[in-house]
Each structure stands twice: as structure tokens, then as C-alpha cells.
Design goal:
By secondary structure, this protein is an alpha/beta fold. Helices cover about 40% and strands about 20% of the residues. The chain contains 12 helices and 15 strands. The structure holds iron/sulfur cluster.
Amino acid sequence: MCSRKVVNIDGLKIGGNLPIRVESMLKAALSDLDSCILESEILYQNGCELIRVAFPDTSLSDNFEKLIKFSKLKIMADIHFDHNLAVAALELGCRAIRINPGNMSDSNGIKKIVDLAKRTDSVIRIGANGGSLNNKQILEAGNDRSLALFNAVEEQLELLLNENFDNIIISAKSSNVCETLRANALLSQKYTYPIHIGITEAGSGISGIVKSSIGIGIILSQGIGDTIRVSLTAPGVEEVKTAYHILRTLELRQRGYNLISCPTCGRKRVDVEKLTRMVKNLLPENLPDGLTIAVMGCEVNGPREASEADIGIAGTPYGFVMFKKGVRICSGKIDELPEKLKRIILEI
Ligand code: SF4
């Protein structure tokens, strides 16, 4: 979006003016290959484009190689401490790795990783997490944790740039939204590399979704960010769905239809919650991306409030009235709705 550099992970381009990419991380362990392949397929079906996979031990190389072969998604190996794991992942055909060059036990290891990444045209993501900042880094930044995150990324970046490698994605993430916002602003002001954004350990349920949506949403709305991951204590598919909701809300990317409904008030003529569930069950998955269907509680304000929708349905004292782009097209009793809605959908 705002980065000027584009990287390419085995055909998946990230950065520049390309669409913001949606990522997740496999929750299944690589030791359970069947679960990894199944999870990867579900994520793919829901629009995920890149998955990070923990690769903690070379004894899992066979499984990792099979996952790379069978998954329809691009894969980024998540590596900690041991440069041999990064080298192994690249040798197995993985075209992206996420490392912290600063915590690699062997400094010569960075050179080996970079040489292989250059030869295989692979991408390296580096980045700092709030949780891994040490006291020295925080003190040196004058207790400014955003600055400490920025400095930590810069230190890692130096190690790769010293090896003349710049096929890089950068990230600065924390579980604190304000801290993450500022760290990303600092990164985008100085660097042109694609930026991966997210709020770490956002939690579960509504609080996790709200925290991620606010954090990622604000950063994206500032024109920062090229690839996102919503981190939730929930199945990865929830992360992907939330990511698309954020992108759709900001009108950055459409995937699937957009079902909206009014909050209801004393004017409602129908049970809007029940009607919305009914409409949702009637909508096929293959509707055009971005198609908006609005379910409104009354015929007084509903049509006006839903006038932008492609299809609007509003409750009346007798049942419902249906609109297409604000123009009334039919009405009837609630039990006639499924038939009429199906017909309208076929026309779209
Ligand atoms: S559409 Fe009607 S019922 Fe729904 S919030 Fe508006 S006025 Fe209330």
C-alpha cells in the first residue's frame, strides 16, 4: 500500500500498490501433518494467502516438505535461534522465512541464510515484538517502547543489509495498540520495505477482535501496511475472516458479500436478528465480492438507511418489502421471502 518496494514469495507479491495480503499462522504442530494440511486448506478456502508455520526442529523436515508440496498457500517458516533451521527450510523449498537475525546463536549463520535466500530468490521477514524487548533496549530508547521496537527492527535490518540483502519484509508488533501504532509510523517514515502489521496476543472473543481491528485499522488507515495478521486465541479461520472484515470496512479489499443489518429500535416491525439469520442462510457463497445486502427493521427508515445496498429488505406490518439499489421491487409475507430473494439473487 505505502511501501515502495515489492517482494515476491513464490508468486505472491507483497507491497507497492498491491492489495493488502491476508496471513495467518498454523495452529497445528508440524508433527501432525494431516491437521496442518487440513488447516491450510480451510484457511485457503477462506481467502488466506500466506501462512506462517513453526519449524522448530529439523526432524520435522519430511513433514514440512510435504506441507510445502500439498498446501495451496504460500508458506513462511517461523524460525528461532538456530540458523540451521532457516537453511533447512530454504533447502526444502520454502520461499519465505521469518527470523530474528539478532538472536541467531551463530553470527556466521546469517551469511549462510542470506546466501541461500539470494540463490533461491526467497524473502526474509524480520521484526521485533514488544514481548521480546530487553531492558537494555528499553533503557537505550529512553523508556519509549515504540522507539525501542523501531531500534530493534533497525538492528536486525542492518545485519541483512550488511550482507547486501534487501528482499525483506519488516514488522514491529506489540500487544499494546498505541505502542504498535507509533513503531509502525516510525518504520514507514524511514523505510520502503513492505510492512507486516498486527497486534500480538490480542486475545480471544470480542475483546481480541476489537483490539486487532482498532490497531490494524488505524495503521492501515494511515496508509501503512502491506500484509496483515490478526492474532486471535481462536481457529485461524477466525483470524482470516476478521482480517477481511477490517479490509472491507476500510474499503481496501473486498471478499465475499457484505450483509448489514440495523441495530433495531422501537420502530421495528420484524425480529431483525431472526430475519438476518434467515437471509444469511439463503445467500450462496459465490455472490459477487462486495455485494451488499441490508436487513432493516422497518419500512419507515429502513429503505433510506439501506439505499446504498444492492438488495435491501425491510420489515413491514404485513411482512417485508424488498429494494434493489433503493428502488422497491416486491413485498410479501415473511414466509414468501425465501422464494423471492432466491429469484432476485439469480438475476444478479
Ligand atoms: S431501520 Fe427502522 S427499526 Fe431499524 S433502527 Fe432504523 S428506524 Fe429502527
